[in-house]
Design brief:
Layout: H1 2-41, E1 43-48, H2 55-63, E2 68-72, H3 76-81, H4 87-102, H5 148-155, H6 161-167, E3 172-177, H7 187-190, E4 197-203, H8 206-214, H9 217-227, H10 241-260, E5 269-273, H11 274-279, H12 281-292, H13 298-308, H14 327-337, H15 340-357, H16 365-369, H17 384-389
Parallel strand pairs: 1-3, 1-4, 2-3, 4-5
The chain binds 2-acetamido-2-deoxy-beta-D-glucopyranose (5 copies).
The site of one 2-acetamido-2-deoxy-beta-D-glucopyranose has 6 residues, from loops.
């Protein structure tokens, strides 16, 4: 009897050691996997665009995704703080701020924000769904679709440290910027092994951009001064000097990425035209998500359908006024509103960009008024870019 008891005790001890070993190995395994996940799986997307080109809308398409930490225009703080400087001089400060935010080092805002601050001090914080959900704000889940207004009412008073804490929990960091004019400034980020940066270049017909800029003349005056290096003087873009710079930068970015294509840009650049997005929202969204390695959930798809068809919750305010029925009208509105004289001027300034990006110039007022004449040409197929960057569904 004694022998049997001893044996079973030994067996029990043996089994306990075995179990402990298994638990230890399992814990180690998951830990290692967790670490390697962190290193390799983060995706950094920069939506590179220009004022009044639909980038807030595109930003929302990413911001509402439960895997995405999104900030709109973090470099706004750089420009506001150093408003007497020029876009060219500020470019590297913008680049470095972007890099820090991509790596969730939010202390970079120490240079631009007061010491005693909370989440609501961040420019346009409430359009960032990630700043409206746990762990940044306890009122919403990250899978919720959260409107700017609801978020603003509930989430503004949380401590600033929550921004960094939240950022670290996401697999995808997406930033939207209109304050960068030169792709080469981003080379060091594109080759940085701690980053996995992809550039989503959003463009829009310059004539439609001007029409939209005319509705926001005051709001753009300070930025215009920085683009034109006026030492802090606000200016109206009456001679389209800012548009000239904007168009020049689109050419620079697009040509660098598609014609000079340094090898590190392979699969890291995608150009989207706002007009294509408006006429086929779901198709374009799927391509952008594919580029970003994001999955479209049923809930997001339903929300996107709603906002592009003008109904359902969340479609009232914000940048969601596009309905697919009047999508063509929205794209074409400039033809009814701008004078032929103005259109000629814009075309003069932006000719290179328009030819490159597929926006047909008009020669006569007759063409301006003939709305059956489609001025958005089909995307060019001859580019290296389309065959290798864009994956067809
Ligand atoms: C947080 O932000 C709100 C709104 O801007 C402000 O009223 C409040 O004083 C801020 N709190 C702190 C601790 O900074
Ligand atoms: C810029 O403006 C400030 C005043 O706002 C002035 O003191 C400074 O001299 C100006 N700099 C240049 C280069 O004109
Ligand atoms: C895309 O994301 C999935 C997980 O959702 C991951 O397994 C895969 O490796 C990612 N692909 C790329 C190219 O990053
Ligand atoms: C889309 O709109 C429909 C009808 O108004 C609504 O039932 C649905 O919940 C909306 N979807 C989302 C995700 O908001
Ligand atoms: C499109 O615009 C035209 C002229 O501005 C207008 O008459 C028409 O009702 C609009 N269509 C829609 C669907 O909004």
């Amino acid at each position: 009897m004694v022998r049997i008891r001893t044996t079973s005790a030994l067996v029990a001890i043996f089994l306990m050691i075995q179990a402990a070993l298994l638990i230890f190995m399992f814990a180690r395994q998951t830990n290692i996997m967790g670490q390697s996940d962190k290193k390799t799986s983060k995706v950094h997307i920069l939506i590179l665009s220009s004022w009044r080109s639909g980038s807030s809308f595109v930003g929302q398409l990413f911001s509402q995704h439960p895997d995405v930490f999104y900030l709109m225009e973090p470099a706004w703080h750089v420009w506001v703080t150093m408003y007497q400087s020029s876009a060219k001089v500020l470019q590297m400060a913008v680049r470095d701020l972007i890099r820090s935010v991509f790596l969730c080092d939010i202390s970079v805002f120490d240079a631009y924000l007061p010491g005693n601050r909370n989440i609501s001090d961040l420019f346009q914080w409430a359009v960032s769904r990630a700043l409206c959900a746990v762990p940044a704000c306890e009122f919403f889940q990250r899978t919720d679709i959260i409107s700017e207004m609801t978020c603003k009412a509930l989430c503004g008073k949380y401590p600033f440290g929550n921004v960094e804490q939240a950022c670290k929990t996401y697999s995808h960091i997406v930033l939207k910027e209109v304050r960068l004019f030169d792709l080469t400034a981003l080379y060091s980020l594109l080759t940085d092994p701690s980053m996995n940066l992809k550039i989503l270049h959003l463009v829009r017909d310059p004539r439609a951009v001007v029409k939209s800029r005319e509705q926001a003349v005051k709001a753009l005056a300070r930025d215009n001064g920085i683009v034109l290096n006026t030492n802090g003087t606000k200016v109206e873009d009456s001679k389209y000097e800012v548009m000239r710079e904007v168009c020049k930068s689109h050419v620079q970015i697009y040509e660098t990425a598609t014609q000079k294509f340094p090898s590190f840009l392979k699969d890291r650049y995608m150009m989207v035209r706002y007009e294509d997005l408006v006429s086929d929202p779901l198709g374009e969204i799927l391509e952008m998500y594919n580029f970003a390695n994001l999955t479209l959930t049923n809930k997001l798809e339903s929300w996107m359908y709603n906002i592009t068809h003008g109904h359902g919750p969340g479609s009232r305010k914000e940048a969601f006024k596009i309905t697919s029925r009047d999508a063509v009208n929205v794209s074409q509105a400039w033809r009814n509103i701008l004078s032929f004289h103005k259109i000629r001027k814009i075309q003069e300034v932006c000719k290179g960009a328009m030819n490159l990006l597929g926006y047909q110039l008009i020669e006569t007022e007759k063409e301006q008024n003939d709305l059956s004449l489609d001025l958005v040409l089909p995307r060019q197929q001859h580019q290296f870019a389309w065959s290798s960057f864009k994956v067809k569904k």
